[in-house]
Design brief:
Elements (H helix, E strand, L loop, with lengths): L5 E5 L5 E4 L1 H7 L3 H4 L4 H10 L2 H9 L3 E8 L2 E8 L6 H13 L3 E6 L4 E4 L1 H5 L10 H5 L4 H14 L3 E10 L5 E13 L5 E10 L1 H19 L6 H12 L6 E7 H4 L14 E8 L10 E3 L5 H8 L3 E4 L11 H10 L1 E11 L2 E11 L7 H38 L10 E8 L6 E9 L3 E9 L3 H19 L5 H20 L13 E9 L4 E7 L5 E3 L5 E3 L4 E2 L12 E5 L5 E5 L1 H7 L18 H11 L9 E8 L7 E6 L5 H16 L3 H21 L4 E7 L3 E7 L19 H8 L2 E6 L4 E7 L26
Parallel strand pairs: 20-23
Antiparallel strand pairs: 1-2, 1-4, 3-4, 5-6, 5-9, 7-8, 8-9, 10-11, 10-15, 11-12, 13-14, 14-15, 16-26, 17-18, 18-19, 19-20, 20-24, 21-22, 21-25, 25-26, 27-28, 28-29, 29-31, 30-31
Helix pairs in contact: 3-4, 9-10, 9-14, 10-14, 14-15, 15-16, 19-20, 20-21
């Protein structure tokens, strides 16, 4: 008899409902005799019958009994097995279905359960035979799993080790993860009978892997930026939803300000700031600053730095101690909480609260260890950010105090600066220094690096350049002396191996432009900074061809070449650090068009337009630009007089000076002092100088007397003896003037002396100049 022929169909009560033709031949009963009878009674009669019936019974001993569905009822098919199944195979199947921990389901071709293993039966309390397998297995995504099983049924291609999530258990459901596999069942005639599915519980394995992945994600994503708030934001983004549904970070307020964290136990009135939160209740929390109420897991953690695993229930006593937080927790539906400390070396930095709500499993003891490891890494990052914040505050304060506060007002040049400090403070600076002869030195500098070291170095260099500028040097000389100063600083830093500045070489750039409002010229030199740009009064921007010089304190003896250019009144000079020059000053810079037509625009408006248009991408250094609009000194405030080379030069100069000082309304005492200074300077030029000689009086914020000649030797103050008849000229000048000095020119030199104008304040206009009504003529010869 062929294997697989259906002999008998029996219902769940053991009665025959179908009796096939092969059964009639083997057992001798017709279908009418057998249907409706108990199969047990029939087999007993067969065993107790005659010899022929016993022989037939023996032939039928090799059978298979297989469950089958008829409608919604489970029936049992008795099939011919052909040759008897080996006893070993039967034992194996029995062991697999009875003793194996693997969850086995046998499905028919409609994906309904027809047989389950003992392990599968233990997973649920309700009968599953006859149900669709997705309903019987309580899958979280039944539609997806049904589609996978149907594909296996149709194609025969098995699916192995597919992670499937199930919900099991009464009350609050427990979520388990299984590794499931699907295989198609076929008979000896290749007819599709259904599927066999087996699943292994891998919940603990997956949870362990997820915990390791979480720790790796936290170490990778948290702490890249030295800002306490950003570190806390990175923390909550890393743990939600991978570990918790809600995360709330509170940091002690003093820690955020960069101060030392308090030791444990933390006193009760220490305020904490909520610095980051993420999850369902994020929109219900506010960034408040307050002490933690006592009697709660949060305050308890700050007393001993021990993490807490807390089950949240309606009657939890600690909720009453913090009604505001309790209301938010109730709305979120949270049922499980871990409170872990942010601590380092026995000092508390804050607390982190992890919540899970009703759709997730409660936290376990293993999760407490994970939360502690996460918070330990975060605490180290927060402490690093705290220390940096403290240094940043100091560096910002130093830099702010060292920069001009506020920028000085200049009568011959309008100055406006754009300064966007770097997030970690830097060494960029600017200056506008008044020089003798109504001139102005415009300076932009940049010390590479950041923090306190860069700010202090910037302050030292800025002090040095103010000192050097008082010597009235040209820009190339100033840069050379400043480079020497920077080199000495670098050598001093190198001698301090534990000092942060010694970790990298000192690199400094600087550009100096000296504007002369009388001659309407500008002399520029630069060291390591980009080429400046000038916008002419007609609005045309053009780059100034200033030869580049090496960075300050650089190796070698390369010079700092200077260039003198004509600047008409109303020109706008733009100088910037490298971080900004590429965007604004470079011919191909994206913001270069903003300089078009800038000749007539107010400088603050131009500065604001550039600031608003700047991209927010990262720049290598601080953003600093100086804008300067030139003005001409009115001709009636300058006396220029060519002098003869003989002794008659002094009387001519005194007479011209006296007349001009009367025109300017200078007081008698100042006029007498000025005549004496003019006489001595002209006398020295006649005696020791080289023609041609020139006298220039400039009446601006100070009254300046300048005498120029073509000799290159600089005069020196001599202390004449009582019996000496000469040698007191410069000594007298130095005694009478506020300050005096010598300035080199392309040919020769200029000796100058300055003193107050001697004009009373009521005779000056709002700009600080003498009232124009007292100016009589051009004042030039």
């Amino acid at each position: 008899m062929p294997s697989g022929d259906v002999l008998v169909l029996i219902d769940d009560s053991g009665r025959v409902v179908e009796w096939g033709r092969p059964a009639e031949e083997l057992f001798g009963w017709s279908a009418e005799e057998a249907v409706g009878r108990s199969v047990t009674a029939l087999m007993s009669e067969a065993a107790a019958g005659g010899e022929r019936r016993r022989e037939r019974f023996s032939e039928t001993a090799s059978v298979l009994v297989k469950p089958a569905l008829r409608g919604t009822s489970v029936m049992w098919q008795v099939l011919s097995a052909g040759d008897a199944m080996p006893g070993q195979d039967v034992a194996i199947l029995k062991a697999v279905f009875t003793h194996s921990p693997v969850v086995l389901h046998v499905l028919d071709n409609q994906l309904r359960v027809v047989r389950i293993s003992v392990a599968a039966d233990r997973l649920g309390n309700a009968p599953v035979l006859g149900k669709h397998f997705t309903e019987a297995c309580a899958l979280e995504d039944p539609a997806e799993e049904a589609a996978v099983a149907q594909r296996v049924l149709e194609s025969g291609e098995p699916v192995v080790n597919r992670l499937v999530r199930r919900t099991t258990g009464p009350g609050r459901p427990t979520r388990r993860i299984h590794s499931a596999s699907y295989f198609r069942l076929e008979d000896s005639h290749d007819r599709v009978l259904g599927l066999v599915t087996y699943a292994v519980d891998v919940t603990e394995r997956e949870n362990a892997q997820n915990r390791l992945a979480l720790l790796d994600a936290v170490r990778t994503r948290v702490g890249h930026r030295l800002n306490v708030g950003i570190v806390c934001e990175e923390l909550v983004e890393a743990v939600v939803p991978a570990f918790a549904d809600i995360a709330d970070v509170q940091v002690i307020e003093d820690v955020i300000r960069g101060n030392e964290p308090p030791a444990v136990p933390v006193r009760r009135n220490v305020p904490l700031r909520r610095t980051a939160f993420q999850g369902r209740i994020a929109d219900q929390l506010v960034e408040d600053v307050r002490p933690l109420p006592t009697g709660t897991p949060f305050s308890d953690v700050l007393s001993d730095l021990r993490p807490r695993l807390v089950s949240i229930a309606e009657d939890s006593s600690w909720l009453a101690a913090d009604p505001a937080r309790a209301e938010v927790i109730r709305r979120s539906g949270s049922h499980s909480l871990i409170v872990a400390p942010l601590a380092l070396r026995g000092h508390a930095l804050g607390v982190v609260s992890f919540y899970r709500h009703q759709q997730q499993d409660p936290f376990e003891e293993e999760d407490v260890a994970v939360a502690s490891a996460v918070c330990a890494h975060a605490a180290l990052c927060i402490d690093n950010a705290r220390q940096f914040m403290r240094e940043w505050i100091i560096a910002q304060t130093v830099q702010r105090r060292l920069l001009p506060q506020p920028p000085a007002t200049h009568t011959t040049v309008d100055v406006c600066q754009l300064h966007l400090p770097a997030p970690d403070a830097g060494g960029a600076w600017f200056d506008a220094i008044e020089l003798p002869g109504a001139r102005t030195a415009l300076i932009v500098g940049d010390v590479a690096g950041h923090g306190i070291a860069a700010a202090i170095t910037m302050g030292l260099l800025r002090t040095a350049i103010h000192t050097l500028a008082a010597l009235d040097m040209q820009p190339d000389e100033l840069l050379a002396r400043l480079s020497d100063t920077a080199a000495r600083l670098a050598a001093a830093y190198a001698g301090l191996p534990m000092d942060p500045p010694a970790s990298e070489p000192l690199t400094t750039g600087c550009a100096i432009a000296i504007y002369d409002p009388v001659e309407l010229t500008c002399t520029i030199a630069r060291a390591g900074l980009p080429e400046p740009v000038v916008v002419l009064p007609d609005g045309t921007p053009t780059g100034l061809s200033v030869p580049p010089g090496p960075p300050l304190a650089g190796t070698g003896n390369a010079p700092f070449p200077a260039t003198t250019v004509d600047l008409p009144e109303g020109s706008t000079l733009a100088m910037a650090t490298a971080a900004l020059a590429d965007e604004v000053l470079a011919p191909s810079g994206p913001l270069r068009p903003l300089l078009d037509g800038a000749g007539t625009r107010p400088l603050p408006d131009l500065r604001d337009d550039i600031a608003h248009a700047l991209t927010h991408g990262s720049r290598a250094g601080e953003t600093l630009m100086m804008l300067a609009r030139t003005k001409a000194l009115p001709k009636d405030r300058v006396l220029t007089l060519s002098l003869p080379a003989g002794p008659e030069a002094a009387p001519i100069a005194r007479a011209a000076a006296r007349q001009q000082l009367e025109t300017w309304g200078v007081g008698e005492e100042t006029a007498y002092t000025t005549e004496l200074i003019v006489s001595e300077l002209v006398g020295n030029a006649v005696r020791y100088g080289t023609p041609p000689l020139q006298l220039r009086l400039i009446f601006e914020r100070m009254l300046t007397c300048e005498v120029s000649d073509n000799a290159t030797s600089a005069p020196q103050v001599k202390h004449a003896r009582t019996v000496d008849e000469t040698g007191r000229g410069l000594f007298i000048v130095a005694s009478l003037a506020d300050q005096w000095g010598t300035r080199s020119r392309s040919q020769g030199k200029t000796v100058w002396a300055e003193q107050p104008t001697g004009v009373s304040t009521e005779r000056r206009n709002d700009a600080g100049h003498p009232d124009d009504r007292h100016f009589g003529g051009s004042g030039s010869s």
